[in-house]
Amino acid sequence: MKPRPATVAGHTCLFIGLVDVATAVSPHVRASRIERIAPYVPGLADDVARATALVVGVLLVLLARGLWRRKRRAWEAAVGLLAVSAVVQGVGHHAFVAAAVAVLLCVGLVLLRGEFHALSDPRGRTRALGNLLLLGAISVGLGLLIVGVRADHEAGHGITFADRFRQVVHGLVGMAGPLTYDSDRIGDVVQVSLLALGLLTASTTVYLALRPVRVAPTGGDARLRTLLGQEGRRDSLGYFALRRDKTVLFSATGKAAIAYRVVSGVALAGGDPIGDPEAWPGAIKEFLEQCARYAWTPAVMGCSERGGQVWVREGGLRAMELGDEAIVDCTEFSLRGRAMRNVRQMVNRIERSGCSCRVRRVRDLTDEEKKQLREAAAAWRGSATERGFSMALGRFGDPADGDCVVVTAHQTDADGTQRVRALLHFVPWGEDGLSLDLMRRDRTAEPGLNELLIVAALRAAPGLGIARVSLNFAVFRAALARGERLGAGPVLRWWRALLVFLSRWFQIESLYRFNAKFRPQWQPRFVVYPTARDLPRIVWACLQAEAFVVLPQPAELLRQWVRGRATKASGKTAVTTAS
Q1: What backbone phi and psi angles, to 5 degrees, belong to 247?
Q2: Structure confidence by residue, pLDDT tens digits, 198-248
Q3: How far is residue 185 from each of residues 67, 177, 181, 182, measured CA to CA in Å?
């Protein structure tokens, strides 16, 4: 949890920044003392004070979150900017209360400097300086273009390029330049456009200077595989710690580990810690210390009830039920009985249409079969991006994953050719369990293939030494189940109605209904978080990690644009050669 001094400092810094911005843009600021000494000190004028207040205010607003997260660089910048703010407010605008608050906060930051120890990206300063120079140059160029296209509306004669350049530089920091226009509207448009460019440059520079540290992924670590071999049966999500985009952090004894990924400043761990439960507190301590060192917000997605209790006890965190995991006992599974009538009829219908299933270990597939299945799974994917984080492996057919199980559905065409129409991929859950990783089917195939594949996997499980299979995860299953019962209260019914509405995009209700067909045992899963105010940020990070939200990456967009231009150029060359 965040210490109170850092939280108070962040909020106070935000307040001072907003006051600075307000005094800079307010048209009702009284005549200032600085105007009286302007004739004796060249360069000092009201627009200088306003511009300084605006720039300092914007930067303090941007730094407020860094202070709240105990960033050392934010502390260094805030101390200097608060001193400038106090001078501007006290001398320039007669805002003595705001100046006194700025001085008090500045002194408080100096006295409490030990609280602000969180590290930023070591490459942040270099990237921030590069961004300032590059984007600053681009902003000046665009500003010259903005001023140039309004040249016909400039008042006066003999205006030079130097005058326009000064107008741009002054406008980027919110100052009035030497040029005037014959229309107030045009002058306002030019001033606002230049100021927007300046704010964009400042905000991106501060972001790069304070951005969180990014650690290199270490998924697939040999020691982690050893721990999974020893203790992997404790958690059905344990094998997903081997994702290659996760970083593994071990306890001091090496007997437990936590796999996590940093997304938007949130360190997301998935499932329970891996290894001996007696060593879990040590791994949790290492993880929370790492989060404090780099100002990450710790969070856990999908831990079990036992794991959640340890996280809450050892880390002082909070837990909230996220949903339920569907676990089927293979030794008791059967299609007999009225409860399984719908599944039984669907499976029989699909089998009569000529579909058959094969259940194999991944190590028993040929390289050509792996390639074909990998391509088919990619082609059947409903989105452009591979989804999943806490309950998905993110790869198929890797030699290191030979114990994984793949179930395929085949259909024979009229010419006798067999085609793969659907597949399931399971990862190991200890020695006697499987956990569903991937479920894909040809969208042109008949409904019911997924049911057929799961039934085939459950029937073949005993022959593979498998006693239990974990199926899909049902988010907020309890609310959906209780909300439709007789006598459910209005709040529960409203919550269920909201979940049903959200199911149009996130498949909340459909996954619950699908899992319930196989009469599973429901095991609750939890999300662990520091405070309620962190939940929106954690939800946003989870949506990004699970690829429900994919933010554009400027570097990737640039590479795609370059590749597109190169492809277009090569196509034109080929057409010319053919002609």
Answers
A1: -110, 140
A2: 888 888 888 888 777 777 676 557 889 999 989 889 999 999 999 988 999
A3: 39, 16, 9, 9
